[in-house]
Design a protein that fits this description.
Blueprint: E1 2-7, E2 12-17, H1 22-31, E3 38-42, H2 48-60, E4 63-67, E5 70-74, E6 82-83, H3 85-88, H4 98-105, E7 107-111, H5 124-132, E8 136-140, E9 143-147, E10 156-158, H6 164-174, E11 180-184, H7 190-201, E12 205-207, E13 213-217, E14 226-228, H8 233-246, E15 248-253, H9 261-270, E16 273-276, E17 281-284, E18 301-302, H10 314-321, E19 327-331, H11 340-347, E20 351-355, E21 358-362, E22 373-375, H12 379-391, E23 395-399, H13 402-407, H14 411-417, E24 421-426
Parallel strand pairs: 2-15, 3-14, 6-7, 10-11, 18-19, 22-23
Antiparallel strand pairs: 1-23, 1-24, 3-5, 4-5, 7-9, 8-9, 11-13, 12-13, 15-17, 16-17, 19-21, 20-21
This protein binds uridine-diphosphate-2(N-acetylglucosaminyl) butyric acid.
Length: about 425
């Protein structure tokens, strides 16, 4: 199993380009199941998770082919409606095939994802949403069996809390249901807007994009489409915090700064200079008159559904705060177990205590942070360890890198190209 080895305290300079968003690619790939024909998706990141999603589509009977960042998916010959445990257990977003399969074939059998490193993550709201459209769901031998006895009919769906994949799943199930479906308290993440654009391009009628009330007027049929995946806001945010941790000045291209309102606001309070342009950032860490780097200021965050501070950037922000001046309180409200990185950050010397769903981070100087061997526990936790390693003195070695490969395309070469001393080595 590979490791990442990095030498800290090297400032970053240069330009880094952001890839397509993992969390937009996954629902858009699943959405190709809705209509037979050859779909063309652009800006598809080549990640462990997107490969898993394509593999799942293959088991259902689809055929796909990649050429650079463009992927053609032919979903004409669907043969199966079953997402097996072996695939779902490696990627819980596999449940995103439920909605399209229900819509296209009237049935689906999808393994129920278990808990994961960051929380229990049930899918009860997805299932309740399907039931409002007339779908019968039962749980049998670890599988969700969904069946439609009479034609799907639009209904009213309310989410107790906004669920990203729940909103996407119900949207996909409802686009060909008879009549009108209203989704209330829907999630508003930009990835959902990307999906809505694709579905409307296929012939669906969905209004309310970017709001928490989505209205779907069912259509008789859909057709294959060409769509482009939006830039990965979490990857862009990770590079912003990397330069905050390491110092220097970088340009981040192919991104969408307007998708990161909360992070940019917080990083400016932290003391970083960030210029947001239409599709790029120029970000730097202040340098004092004598050339040394100024100390960042501690700032509090609370994770919230979009446009609040994203939970997927919480771990990386904490990695920045370990070297800030003062005390930062990081409150996680989305997932109940998303502090697995804390124990690893402590191995570098970070002073963090956990109090329920809050982490209290007492900043120490960069000189006191010392590289160490650490273990990645989930995707975003891994990114936080890279950021912490960039600011610590000495060498940090991160094991279980496969977590990173699930969601960051070419992270190591991209960081190396802007000056990080980082390599991936066989363990
Ligand atoms: N929830 C329920 N019941 C449900 C669905 C969700 O109780 O049926 C709860 C969850 O346990 C959580 C909250 O609702 O407390 C919100 O979870 P949500 O459903 O929005 O999460 P998700 O759709 O499973 C997506 C991303 C995650 C990201 C979250 C929150 C994808 C493929 N995954 O997950 O991404 O953290 O939204 O923004 O879009 C990541 O990329 O590292 C990642 C974990």
């Amino acid at each position: 199993m590979d490791k990442i080895r990095l030498q800290g305290m090297r400032p970053l300079y240069g330009t880094v380009a952001v890839s397509g968003a993992k969390n937009a690619a996954l629902p858009l790939i699943a959405a190709t199941l809705l209509a037979p024909g050859t779909h063309i998706l652009h800006n598809v990141p080549d990640l462990r998770d997107t490969r898993t999603m394509f593999k799942l589509l293959e088991t259902l009977g689809a055929v796909w082919q990649r050429s650079g960042t463009t992927v053609q998916v032919d979903t004409t010959g669907l043969m199966s409606s079953e997402a097996p445990y072996d695939l779902v257990k490696t990627m819980r977003a596999s449940v995103l095939v439920l909605g399209p399969l229900i819509s296209r074939t009237g049935r689906a059998r999808v393994s129920l994802p278990g808990g994961c490193a960051i929380g229990a993550r049930p899918i009860d709201m997805h299932l309740r949403g399907f039931e409002q459209l007339g779908v019968q769901t039962v749980l049998e031998k670890g599988y969700v069996e969904a069946r439609v006895e009479s034609p799907l009919t639009g209904g009213s769906v309310y989410f107790d809390v906004p669920s990203v994949t729940g909103t996407e799943n119900v949207l996909m199930a409802s686009v060909q249901a008879k009549g009108e479906t209203v989704i209330k308290n829907a999630a508003k993440e930009p990835e959902i807007g990307n999906l809505i654009d694709m579905l409307n391009g296929m012939g669906a009628h969905i209004s309310g994009k970017d709001t928490d009330r989505l209205v779907v007027t069912g259509v008789e049929s859909l057709h294959a489409v060409e769509a482009t995946i939006i830039p990965d806001r979490i990857e862009a945010g990770t590079y912003l915090m990397a330069v905050g941790a390491a110092g220097g000045e970088i340009t981040i291209t192919n991104c969408c700064p307007e998708h990161l309102p909360a992070l940019v606001e917080k990083l400016r309070l932290v003391g970083m200079d960030i210029e947001a342009r239409e599709d790029s950032f120029i970000a730097s860490c202040p340098v004092a008159a004598d050339g040394s780097r100024c100390r960042l200021k501690a700032v509090n965050i609370t994770t919230m559904p979009y446009p609040g501070f994203p939970t997927d950037l919480q771990a990386q922000f904490m990695a920045l705060m370990i070297q800030a001046e003062g005390v930062s309180i990081i409150h996680e409200t989305i997932f109940e177990n998303r502090f697995m990185h804390v124990a690893e950050l402590q191995r570098l010397g970070a002073q963090i205590t956990i109090d329920g769903s809050s982490a209290v981070v007492k900043g120490i100087s960069r000189e006191q942070l010392c590289g160490a061997a650490v273990m990645a526990t989930d995707l975003r936790a891994s990114a936080s360890l890279v950021i912490a390693g960039l600011s610590a003195s000495g060498v940090t070695e991160i094991s279980r890198v496969y977590h990173l490969e699930r969601g960051y395309e070419n992270l190591v070469p991209k960081l190396r190209a802007i000056g990080a001393e980082i390599e991936q080595v066989a363990a």
